[in-house]
Amino acid sequence: MTTFAGGATASNAASDRLARDALTVLQPGFTGTTAPDWLLRRLGEGLASVGLFGRNVATAEQLTALTARLRAEREDVLVAIDEEGGDVTRLEVRTGSSFPGNHALGAVDDVELTEDVARELGRRLAECGVNFDWAPSADVNSNPGNPVIGVRSFGASTDLVARHTAAYVRGLQAAGVAACTKHFPGHGDTAVDSHHALPRIDVDAEVLQARDLVPFRAAVAAGTKAVMSAHILVPALEPDLPATLSRRVLTELLRGELGYDGLIVTDAVEMKAIADTYGIERGSVLAVAAGADAICVGGGLADEETVDRLRDALVGAVRSGDLPEERLADAAARVRALARWTAEAAATGAAVVADPEVGLRAARRAQRVTVAETFTPLDRAPYVAAFTPVANIAVGDETPWGVAAELSRLLPGTETGSFSGDDAGQAALRAAGDRRVVAVVRDEHRHPWMAAALDTLIAARPDTIVVEMGVPQATPRGALHIATHGAARVCGLAAAEIIAGK
Fold first, then answer.
1. Among this protein's residues, is 267 annotated catalytic?
2. What is the pLDDT of residues 242-259, one digit of tens each?
């Protein structure tokens, strides 16, 4: 077996082609806000995609310079980002998103609005040189206790999710940005986060066909350029392997039954659902053999050694007969084909007219207000008690959320504190003193301590205002209850406007 260390050093054309194809199917990340030398070298050696995360983005100007540097090395490079809007934002990781997420758009249920939001988001991505978005989530949030999807889903209705998934795909791609519909065959009915372990969905094939697969069919019909696989076990489809590693799921179902001919991308291969059960090298080989065309890696493992390990594993698998050479070549060809599409689509996307206020308009329309008594907007600065759960890895803990920052602009002097645990309610009361309390929660229904904190607050202070920024499953309570359907910055602003009567 030829060993590759630090660069493709094969002595013949066939080995060089294998190494280039192996690099082409990787979508690696890196650390920092400038491209490291090793990444630029790999672009010259065959790497065709780069994945960006919040750690790579400081400002729009910096991001534009970064993508321009990547293109100076390889003009048709696919620059991918995990930008869903809403809670999962990388463009505005330090401020919160200017766009509400899927759940807010589903709550409005205006397909044209969803398409407009996605088009403007795509325009901003393209303006910064990003041409591939790991979005939208097409998962039907059928399990309200889902710890990783939640407000990233358009909702619990299959038809609603299908309509808005298709609209989102159309909007993004009208801006010249390839959509990557995820997480196939559907991550909505899980109680486990696949970042931490392997979730299992135990429903029969008829339920999957009628519920989970419908939005993906809609995405395929809308022309989605990519589909991302889920690291989930679905015994009705495949009894032994996660979907990402299953030929039955990726090739027979997605390509065969659904008729999909675009790029298949894995979810991050270093997630524990794969890394702890198969290892990233074997997992990557199995994924490509099953029908995946691109391996996403770099959310956690973002270094030169990881890229070299995965390249070597793919080349070694071809040489040992574990991975057909033609399957690797086909995967690489699909990546290059998408790169060509983005280059051609860039000219069309440049014609999209900017609509900078569409996100706020959507967030305002997504607010659901329940008033327990006649409510008079606040004219004095309140105390904002944020009951803060542990953020899932997809959302991250670096993006601010809540209503305190926006209320501070409307009602100067607003104070805030973050609380969690069994004493959260009493602690918030002590901190608030005699100020009016605005309690901000996120998925109250999933956190007993949070529900107990609200019990304590409302018993002592019936005039408490409650802002639910997660999935609004719990019964509305408080003098005023606002369900924002997401924790994006614009969702907080829209709620603050109601509280302050602006």
1. yes
2. 999 999 999 999 999 999
